[in-house]
Design a protein that fits this description.
The protein is of the alpha/beta class. The chain is built from 13 helices and 15 strands.
Length: about 400
């Protein structure tokens, strides 16, 4: 079994990818690079990492000869380029978490650095590896709806998820992380490229950061939900309720405070997640639409929005002979044929890993490529990022 090192022992490296690799014996996790001493120690305890294979940062790891077959680089959005270039110099197989970068210049630099690279380079585009999307792709390839003419793709974030990550959380500022459509949705652009099999020729985009502002507060509200808000009982964004009894409880492990309600509430008194959503410093969009034209005149519309109950993706493809629609989280796909008026239902299951099995699918494909010593870097990776960045550029131009 080939070996790998995790760079960044956070939500993706520690909580998503490493457990799959270890549980399914895909790659042997032999090292970690993580500046936070507590996280680094916990990771070493979990995976039995030797002391000489635990590094306090990517710099100390990549200053040495190659110590494993592969690295998974799971640092923050604006900390991707430098460690990836260092990994290329060392000759590792590489999986880089999305987005590659929020800067077009850095994407260009990385693409140039990979010309002729004799190893695997993949990024965390999990959606194309979900059984749901694979089934839709198989139906398209089989001609079930004829030639695809239109596509509608909705990323329904969930009002609670957007509030956690993009209003209160670490992705709420495009200047220090990435714009919403890049951080959250660059793999949706990859999904459109994957399903349509065509290049995009034109793009338009609109969106705003209009709702999570003081002017939209229900009244005179305090800076924190723990400060005695008069609207606490009726506010859907009440942090105390969201993190003790709502969907936000999923994120509590990131607080480092334990899971007791009293400990959670105490943490909310000082951490960013206890802030009122109408008194935050967020500057990313709360909704955005991109309209794209692809080769052959295929039209697609993508919407990402904070204003939904569920955190899910819905999709519809319309072709000359029929249509396909479905909801990813439900695993339900409906195929309707025009000629005979028949309707066929498909239920797709997955392995239980995050992103509807996409995390597991991505890890298996990466491990397969590493174990087989494959050599490739998928060009769609860069095209998808450039489309997301172009959508943001056009949106800002339309806004001014």
């Amino acid at each position: 079994m080939k070996t790998c090192i995790i760079v960044g022992a956070g939500g993706r490296g520690k909580d998503a990818y490493a457990p799959i690799l270890a549980r399914e014996h895909l790659l042997r996790v032999v090292g970690v690079a993580e500046p936070d001493a507590d996280r680094r120690h916990a990771f070493c305890e979990t995976y039995g990492i030797a002391e000489n294979m635990a590094f306090d940062g990517w710099q100390s790891l990549f200053s040495q000869r190659r110590l494993a077959d592969a690295v998974l680089i799971c640092t923050q959005d604006r900390m991707h380029l430098a460690p990836t270039l260092a990994a290329i110099r060392c000759g590792y197989h590489i999986l880089l978490e999305k987005p590659i970068s929020p800067l077009t210049a850095e994407i260009d630099i990385l693409e140039d650095a990979l010309v002729g690279y004799d190893c695997v380079f993949m990024t965390g585009f999990v959606l194309r590896y979900t059984p749901f999307i694979r089934k839709i792709r198989a139906l398209i390839d089989a001609g079930a709806i004829g030639d695809v003419m239109n596509m509608q793709l909705n990323e329904n974030e969930g009002y609670w998820h957007h509030a956690h990550s993009y209003v209160r959380g670490q992705w709420n500022n495009a200047d220090t992380s990435s714009p919403l459509i890049v951080a959250k949705s660059c793999h949706d652009f990859d999904l459109m490229l994957y399903l349509l099999g065509r290049h995009c020729t034109h793009i338009a985009s609109y969106g705003t950061n209009g709702y999570f502002k003081a002017a939209n507060a229900p009244g005179n509200v305090p800076a924190r939900c723990t400060d005695g808000c008069a609207f606490a009982d009726s506010c859907k964004y009440n942090a105390v309720r969201q993190y003790t009894a709502g969907e936000g409880r999923y994120f509590v492990h990131k607080f480092g405070c334990g899971t007791e309600d009293t400990a959670i509430i105490e943490a909310l008194r000082s951490n960013p997640y206890g802030r009122c959503v109408y008194h935050c410093d967020n500057n990313v969009c709360d909704h955005q639409v991109a309209a794209l034209e692809f080769e052959g005149g295929i039209a697609a519309v993508f919407t990402v929005s904070a204003f939904s109950q569920r955190n899910t993706r819905t999709i519809k493809l319309m072709g000359t002979e029929g249509e396909i629609g479905g909801c990813m989280e439900d695993g339900e796909i409906v195929l309707r044929r025009f000629a005979d008026g028949t309707t066929e239902h498909f239920t797709v299951t997955h392995d239980g890993t995050k992103h509807c099995g996409g995390d597991g699918g991505l890890m298996r494909r990466f491990a397969e490529a590493v174990n087989a010593d494959e050599r490739f870097a998928d060009a769609r990776i860069f095209e998808a990022h450039r489309l997301a960045l172009e959508a943001e550029r056009v949106r800002k131009r339309n806004e001014s």
